[in-house]
Design brief:
- It is built from nine helices and 17 strands.
- By secondary structure, it is α/β, with parallel strands linked by helices.
- The protein has a domain of 204 residues: 3-Layer(bba) Sandwich (FAD/NAD(P)-binding domain).
- The strands form two sheets. Strands 3, 4, 5, 6, 11, 12, 13, 14 and 15 form a nine-stranded mixed sheet that branches. Strands 1, 2, 7, 8, 9, 10, 16 and 17 form an eight-stranded mixed sheet that branches.
- The structure holds flavin-adenine dinucleotide.
- Flavin-adenine dinucleotide binds next to helix 1, strand 3, strand 8, strand 11 and strand 15.
Length: 360
């Protein structure tokens, strides 16, 4: 049975950051990915600029131009419950607009160039902790493969299968997001449009992202409303038609995904969780790629420290991510207070007064 120092389940940004850093530290790493190379992941593909800085500082990487979408950068336009006329643009704020599948494929190609093995089309099935090692079972086609590792990293997303071995899925709060990619007409400019409308239209948020020649229209709802996602999206599109002259022409793609809503699971013993699998995603904005990368970096630091000092990985990792956990829990608290038209209106007003310009 092949033995590795670190096995990472999931080749998204959290898993690949962990793998890249662990390999840089001299560890023998294996990545297991259920999807194919270049797999598609439901995502808006919006990155804060700091994400590029982190990639540069930590990995000496620059996002290649072909990973960027058109327009390459977007401003942020808020729309409150009272509608577009009281919305506007946050001043001095820019976001990167990327193709998510190309971004992850690019990170995979970086890892492959560094000779980190990634087993694509291979699904994690289960792990068993033994005296010294962790035995990991995976399925590739009809074959069941077994590996041994000292440290197991669950980087397998919001519905993490690794996490389900130690933490009940029903206790892990998630939101559902429905996205449609439309060829459409509309009165939109180069902004990421964030809609905080009444809760009966956008229970969490709605958004519009211009991407290449299309518009991504998305809506996020809490777990108990996931079955009604399409209804909410239809109501949201009606607002877009009324306020932004949105005219759909052709639906190119439709996808559902999930984001963590403030439940944090760092890990147990020598098994830890990074990115969405551990709940490391901004529950209010759904921004998770940066936190995925940051927790991947924190995880690799924890592996080194745990290995050097003979400490349990989870104990060290918990310390390394403490400030990220605080941030997420604070955002969650803040978000629960944004539960009325009035508080949403106040929030947008205060955001825009920070910028003191409006742009309709
Ligand atoms: C609709 C939507 C829009 C979003 N928009 C944005 C955005 O614009 N900007 C932003 O920053 N964040 C966004 N997010 C959040 C962001 O996508 C996540 O936070 C981010 O992908 C987390 O990265 P990750 O590596 O932890 O997990 P993922 O990117 O989910 O990667 C997990 C990987 O694990 C693999 N996997 C799963 N199960 C197994 C298994 N059993 N065996 C092997 N492999 C497995 C999956 O195939 C996948 O490749 C959005 C989320 C959704 C749902």
């Amino acid at each position: 049975m092949r033995t590795f120092d670190v096995i990472v389940v999931g080749a998204g940004p959290s898993g690949l950051s962990t793998a890249l850093k662990c390999a840089e530290q001299g560890y023998n790493v294996l990545v297991i990915e259920r999807g194919k190379y270049g797999r598609s992941k439901p995502c808006g593909g919006i990155l804060p600029l700091v994400c590029q800085d982190i990639l540069d500082y930590e990995f000496s990487l620059r996002i290649p131009s072909d990973v960027l979408s058109f327009p390459q950068s977007l401003g942020l336009f808020y729309v409150p419950p009272s509608g577009r006329e009281n919305g506007g643009v946050l001043r001095n704020y820019k976001l990167l607009n990327i193709s998510r599948s190309m971004f992850d494929a690019w990170l995979c190609s970086v890892a492959i160039k560094k000779k980190i093995p990634i087993l694509f089309n291979t699904a994690f099935l289960e792990f068993r902790e033994e005296e010294k090692d962790i035995k990991v079972l995976v399925k590739a086609g009809n074959d069941i493969l077994k590996f041994k590792t000292r440290y197991l990293i669950g980087a397998d997303g919001a519905l993490s299968n690794v996490r389900r071995h130690i933490f009940s899925f029903s206790d892990f709060d998630i939101a559902g997001i429905l996205q449609e990619h439309w060829e459409a007409k509309g009165d939109f400019s180069e902004y990421f449009y964030m809609f905080l409308l009444s809760k009966d239209i956008t229970p969490i948020y709605g958004y519009v992202i211009p991407k290449n020649d299309l518009f991504i229209i998305g809506i996020g709802v809490p777990r108990d409303k996931i079955r009604k996602l399409q209804e909410y999206l239809e109501r949201f599109k009606k607002v877009l038609s009324d306020e932004f002259n949105f005219v759909p022409i052709s639906l190119i793609k439709k996808e559902v995904g999930f984001i963590p809503q403030g439940t944090i699971v760092e890990g147990k013993d020598n098994v830890i969780f990074v990115g969405d699998a551990g709940g490391f995603c901004n529950p209010f904005s759904g921004e998770g790629i940066r936190l995925a990368i940051e927790t991947g970096i924190a995880a690799s630091g924890a592996v080194l420290q745990a290995d050097t000092n003979g400490e349990p990985l989870t104990v060290v990792y918990r310390q390394n991510v403490e400030s990220i956990v605080d941030f997420i829990l604070n955002v969650r608290k803040f978000m629960l207070n944004l539960n009325s038209d009035e508080t949403r209106e106040d929030f947008v007003r205060s955001e825009l007064s920070r910028s003191s310009i409006t742009d309709h």
